[in-house]
Design brief:
The complex is a heterodimer of chains A (534) and B (322). Chain A is α+β, with helices and mostly antiparallel strands. In chain A, 30% of the residues lie in helices and 20% in strands. In chain A, the strands form five sheets. In chain A, strands 8-9-10-1-11-19-12 form a seven-stranded mixed sheet, sandwiched between helices. In chain A, strands 14-18-13-17-15-16 form a six-stranded mixed sheet, sandwiched between helices. Chain A has a four-stranded antiparallel sheet with strand order 4-5-7-6, covered by helices on one side. The chains are: A alpha+beta (534), B mainly alpha (322).
């Protein structure tokens, strides 16, 4: 397949997904939402360590905590911000301060009202030091002007999309001051029975099995949630999830709940739908990283050659059963705001790879150009296969490969703490906003020894740092988009680390589950509007 | 009898000590630590916060000090605190241990019932089609991986026939009376206990058959027949009782492996037992939790073995407590 046709394909489908938006299959239902019923949901992973992990803790606690905690705003599937706990977030003219108006008459599950004091506490004591970290470095003060108004002040101008993206993102959950004030937020035992403002209250968590949520009858959005009860259950085995769907004991599963070959079988019965929407603000990629601390991989030609040696369509079609696409640049194709096709592509071309390696000064000597250690992070089953494929692909250009597929803890240590690899296969999920989740893989300040999912390659380019710092303070949205394009071009041509495939996770739901997958990160949404057509 | 109990209890102490030291060393030899896993999951990069967490988790001290502290706290019957779950280790384990115990006991029950019956039947009808069928079944269930058996049973009995639930331990979201709850758990228990039990039943059947055939040849059996006892009574009261001894030995040995084997079955049937907890804890290098499970597990196995010893006495009065 030529690079051009694939790019065009990517753009049209991304555009089509955007255009359809709310008219998606899950919304195609007729009639008004029905009240009542119990929804049993799951996801393609395991039970969380705690129902709420203040600093993040991965997808599982994010899934369970977001039914209880809400954010100020949310991002819809067509990438527009929508009010949740805030009625408005307005920047000042110089973009150095923002005024947040809270929704009146919102109460916590224990009956206490949500006020601007809560918000100040969240901004200064929770978001800045714990959940957002460096992302909110520029935040200086938060002041409560009246019980429902807060002004956030920043050291530098802060782009509106950036701030709203943080507030609508994983770091923006609003937690109660009267419960957490004075305690260590991270180790507070209440995190196992969180109290929030959301549509569901934690009723009971049976460890090893499920968590049951009861409807919050005093929810601020009158009439919602439509469900009486929500149950999140965990299965450790994808085949068991398929069985649970078929036996009618599971209604919805997010993030690839069942084995890929089962998807076609289940959807063919018309009793289930497979939905790929609802993941754009938490877009997963599988990336390849080149350790710049090694002399060989410091050479750009070598990195480019290795990228040419990888058949990414093969990975997408064979390893992911077509539920992934070859990547282009550093951004996920579903990022319709910032994605650009105008970056260097690396089509599969073994001859070109060999020529580049020859030119870089690594000719074949005694059957091998050089030896490399390849570490494929074993936290996803697919990475095992990708690691094995890459070993073969690199051996096809006469490189001797020493492959290791360690478990989660060891992978984290080898890639992100000890930098003990030459080439690594890893994953991450990125928000629409590229700062910091995408940019921290490329900037010099993204190098933090022992901190995972950021610059582990040691790549440092002043031009890259400058572009990203410009992006951080550019408040004109159009100019900002072109700065992101500039960033993407540089990332793609320097290629210290690049996505190989953009994953397309799928949500499986019974066809009588309505109004799911309407937001940009459905798994982390409150599910207040989900209803059962039974 | 009392001496046996006391001796067994005294033996448990060095056992648990060895379990702690060995596993502590093993888990520290594995690359990566709880601290790495926790901070990377939580995306903590602030050096001040990292130091604070190092102190909270106690990993800022030398490993030998950590080990000594842990042994000291176990001696005071305190299994420590799990920062991953934000709860005391003992509480988390106690939430999940009963489910594993129920599953284990039910599986043992099924294994004994099915295995012994099949073994006896095979030995009575030795070298007939019955014997061959039972041997074939035993080989099959011994060879079939229990996770595969579990999935096949789910597909057959839960998905196609709808007789049993696909997983879990309770029907979620239903408030029932105590009696209803017991029935509900039993209903959920059938498939996992059978899938786990059949593997052990296969061994029991083979051993029981051989043992029965051996005892049946002994003189006292001929005497019993000569006395004019009925065939059934000879088999049940004379042959079977004496043939049970190797089964009891096997049972004592397999209790430990069953605790381990239930990890797989728990995963397939999402049974809320200790298996998934142990697995997650090993993967996240959460050593207080791993050690807690292993300490309680070794206690359990030791107590079960002591019980088996007592069973010997009951079955064969010739064995004296020494």
């Amino acid at each position: 397949m030529s690079g051009f046709s694939r790019r065009d394909f990517l753009m049209t489908t991304a555009g089509a997904a955007l255009a359809s938006g709310f008219a998606g299959s899950s919304k195609a239902a007729t009639g008004a939402p029905k009240r009542g019923g119990t929804l049993v949901g799951t996801w393609g992973g395991f039970e969380p360590q705690s129902l709420f992990v203040p600093a993040g803790g991965g997808s599982s606690p994010y899934f369970t905590s977001t039914k209880v905690f809400e954010r100020l705003i949310r991002l819809t599937a067509d990438l527009k911000f929508e009010p949740v706990l805030a009625l408005g977030i307005e920047p000042a003219e110089d973009f150095r301060s923002y005024t947040i108006k809270l929704r009146p008459n919102v109460t916590w599950h224990d009956g206490k009202p949500l006020t601007s004091d809560d918000l100040v506490f969240n901004a200064i004591q929770y978001w800045k030091p714990i959940s957002a970290g460096v992302t909110l470095d520029a935040l200086q003060t938060a002041e409560a002007v009246d019980p429902l108004t807060v002004v956030l002040k920043f050291k530098v101008p802060v782009p509106e999309f950036f701030l709203k993206s943080v507030l609508a993102g994983k770091a923006g959950l609003v937690i109660p001051k009267h419960i957490y004030d004075g305690s260590n937020i991270i180790t507070n035992p209440i995190n196992n029975t969180p109290i929030g403002t959301g549509p569901f209250k934690v009723k009971e968590w049976v460890r090893g099995s499920h968590v049951e949520y009861a409807r919050n009858d005093t929810y601020w959005n009158a009439g919602k949630p439509y469900l009486d009860k929500l149950v999140i259950r965990w299965w450790r085995d994808p085949a068991s999830r398929s069985a649970a769907f078929e036996a009618g004991q599971l209604d919805i599963g997010t993030f690839n709940p069942i084995p890929a070959p089962d998807i076609a079988r289940l959807t063919a019965t018309k009793k289930f739908v497979a939905e790929t929407k609802g993941y754009s603000n938490s877009a997963w990629i599988t990336s390849v990283e080149f350790n710049q601390r090694r002399e060989i991989f410091k050479k750009r030609e070598v990195r480019q050659a290795l990228l040419h040696a990888i058949d990414r369509s093969f990975i997408a079609d064979t390893v992911f059963f077509g539920r992934a696409r070859p990547s282009l640049g550093a951004l996920h194709f579903s990022n319709s705001i910032f994605f650009t096709k105008d970056v260097q592509d690396y089509p599969f071309d073994v001859k070109k790879a060999a020529a580049l390696l020859d030119a870089a000064g690594y000719p074949v000597k005694a059957g091998s150009r050089f030896k490399m250690s390849l570490v494929s992070a074993g936290w996803f089953e697919e990475n095992v296969k990708i690691g094995q494929y890459l070993k073969q692909a690199f051996e096809d250009v006469d490189i001797t490969v020493d492959l290791a597929i360690p478990d989660r803890a060891t992978s984290l240590k080898r890639i992100y703490t000890d930098y003990d690899y030459d080439v690594a296969v890893s994953n991450n999920s990125a928000s629409i906003e590229p700062i910091p989740q995408t940019t921290q893989y490329y900037t010099t300040d993204g190098i933090v020894k022992g901190a995972a999912f950021r610059n582990a390659t040691g790549y440092s380019n002043p031009k890259m740092d400058e572009t990203v710092s410009k992006m951080a303070i550019e408040t004109d949205e159009k100019k900002r988009v072109s700065l992101v394009h500039e960033f993407d071009k540089l990332a793609a041509s320097d290629a210290p680390v690049l996505p190989m495939v953009d994953l397309e996770p799928v949500t499986i739901a019974r066809s009588d589950v309505r109004d799911h997958s309407l937001t940009a990160d459905f798994m982390g949404e409150s599910w207040a509007e989900v209803w059962l057509d039974r | 009898m009392r001496r046996i109990i006391i001796r067994r209890l005294v033996q448990i102490i060095p056992l648990i000590f060895a379990v702690i030291v060995m596993n502590f060393v093993l888990i520290h030899l594995a690359p990566g630590s709880l601290f790495d896993v926790m901070t990377s999951e939580q995306q903590i990069t602030d050096p001040k916060m990292l130091d604070q967490l190092r102190h909270t988790y106690g990993v800022d001290q030398p490993v030998s000090v950590q080990l000594a502290k842990y042994i000291w706290s176990v001696m005071r019957l305190d299994l420590g605190y799990s920062y991953r779950q934000n709860a005391p280790v003992f509480d988390v384990i106690m939430q999940q241990l009963p489910a594993t115990l129920i599953l284990m006991l039910a599986a043992i029950g099924i294994a004994l019932l099915v295995g012994v019956t099949a073994g006896v039947l095979a030995s009575i009808k030795v070298n007939t089609i019955w014997d061959n069928l039972i041997s074939l079944g035993a080989v099959f269930f011994f060879a079939a991986p229990s996770f595969w058996l579990g999935i096949m049973m789910t597909v057959m009995f839960a998905v196609k026939l709808g007789w049993f639930p696909v997983g879990g331990m309770r029907t979620i979201g239903v408030d029932e009376s105590a009696f209803g709850a017991v029935l509900d758990v039993m209903h959920h228990l059938v498939l996992p206990a059978t899938a786990l039990g059949l593997f052990y039943a296969a061994t029991f059947a083979r051993v029981m058959r051989a043992s029965m055939l051996e005892v049946a040849r002994l003189d006292f059996v001929r005497t019993a027949r000569a006395k004019g006892l009925s065939g059934g009574r000879v088999v049940l009261a004379h042959v079977m009782r004496n043939a049970m001894l190797p089964i009891v030995t096997l049972l004592g040995l397999q209790l430990g492996t069953m605790l381990g084997g239930s990890v797989v079955i728990e995963a397939v049937f999402s049974w809320p037992g200790i298996g998934s907890l142990l697995f997650d804890s090993v993967m996240s290098r959460n050593f207080p939790m791993v050690l807690g499970v292993l300490v309680l597990g070794s206690l359990l196995v030791a107590v079960c073995n002591a019980t088996v010893d007592l069973l010997y006495l009951r079955l064969d009065p010739r064995i004296k407590a020494r």
